[in-house]
Amino acid sequence: MAGYRLSNGGDESNKWLLVNQLMRDNKIGVLAVQEAHLDEKRAEEVKKLFGQRLDLFFSADRVNPSGAKGVAFVINKKALQTSNCSLQEVVPGRAALLELTWTANRRLKILNVYGPNDRQENAAFWRTVKLAGLANVSFVLGDLNVVESPMDRLPRKEDPVQAQDSLHDLMMSLRVTDGWRTANPTTYAFTYLQQATGSQSRIDRIYVARSMDKDVDDWMICETGIPTDHKMVSVMVANKQAPFVGKGRWSMPTHLLNDDALKDEMKRLGRRLADEIASIGERSAAHNAQTLYNVFKDDLIDAARSRAKTPRGPTQFAQPG
Q1: Residue 8 — very low, low, confident or very high, per pLDDT cuts 50/70/90?
Q2: What DSSP line would sit under 225-267, residue for residue?
C-alpha cells in the first residue's frame, strides 16, 4: 500500500501512464493519490487505457473537479478484487474512505486525505473529518500539510498548535498511529522539498490502526519516476492470520514432455520397473510392487530435474553399473 501526491499541471495522460508503471513495477496493491484532478470523463479515459490492470475510485472538487484538489484510489486488479469495493466521500475532493475485501473474512477501510495548505483551514478540515463519525478505519494516508513533531521539518520548527491539536484529536478518535515514525523513532526523513527555500518536511504519512500493528512492515519513503516534488510513502500489509503456504509439490516443466532424451530415459526406467515387479518372489514389507514403484518415481523425478538444468540437445543419462 502506498500514498502519493501527484504534481500540478503537466501531461495528464503521461501522468497516469507513469502511475500504471509505478504500480506494476513495485507490485503496489492500493495507491492513494492526492491532487488527482479527475472528473467523470477523465476517470473513464483512464479506465479505458488501464482497465485490464487498474481500477479507479475518486472524489473530486465540486467547483473545479479537473483543475484542483481531488483524491483517488488506484487498485491493482492483479492483487485485489475490486467488484465489492465501496467509496464514501467524507469531504469532496479532500477526504474519501475506501472499503475493500482483503481476505475472505477481513475488510480494510482506508481513508485518503489531502489537508489544506492554509493553517486555519487545515485545523477546520480535521475537525470536519472527525464529525463524520468514521469507525474501524484501518489506515489514514495522504498529504496532510501539517506535521506533529518539529523533527519532521528541516529546519526544525513547530507547526500551528490548532492544526496539530485537531489532527491529533482525529487520529486518537480513529485509534491510528503514525506507522513510519513508530518504526523509525529517531530517524530524520522527509517527503517534500520546497524548491524556493530548500526546506523539507514529512507531510506525507500513513497512519495504521493499533489493532493492525503486527500486520504491517517494511515502511518506506522513496523517489518514483513521476515528476513531482513529493516522495512516495509505502508499507507492506501482510495477513499474519493466513496459514503458511509453502512452495508446493515439484512439477516437471511441460516442455520436457517432448524431450527425446528424457522420453528414452522414461522408457528405460519403466522397463526396469516392469522387469523388477515381474521377478518379485515372495512379497515382503521392504520388497514389493509399491516400494519398487516409489524408487521408480524418485529416479524419474531426478532424471527430469537433471534434464531441466541441461541445455537442449542429446544427453546421455548415467546408467546403473
Answers
A1: low
A2: SS--SB-EEEEEE--TTSPP---------GGGGG-HHHHHHHH
Which run of H or E residues covers position 235?
strand 232-237
Question: E strand or H helix at 141, and its extent?
Answer: strand 139-143
* pLDDT of 321 strictly over 50: no
Within a 10 A sphere around the Cβ of 312, how many other Cβ atoms?
A: 9
Cell match 469531504: residue?
Answer: 91
Distances (CA, A) of 137 to 57, 104, 126: 18, 18, 15
* Nearest Cα to Cα of residue 137 among 168, 166, 172, 111: 111
Residue 10 — pLDDT band, cuts 50, 70, 90? low
Express each pLDDT in 85-133 by its tens digit: 999 999 999 999 999 998 878 899 999 999 999 999 999 999 999 999 9
For residue 150, cis peptide bond before it (omega within 30 degrees of 0): no
Question: What are 162's three cell numbers?
Answer: 490548532
Q: Residue 197 carries which DSSP code? A: T
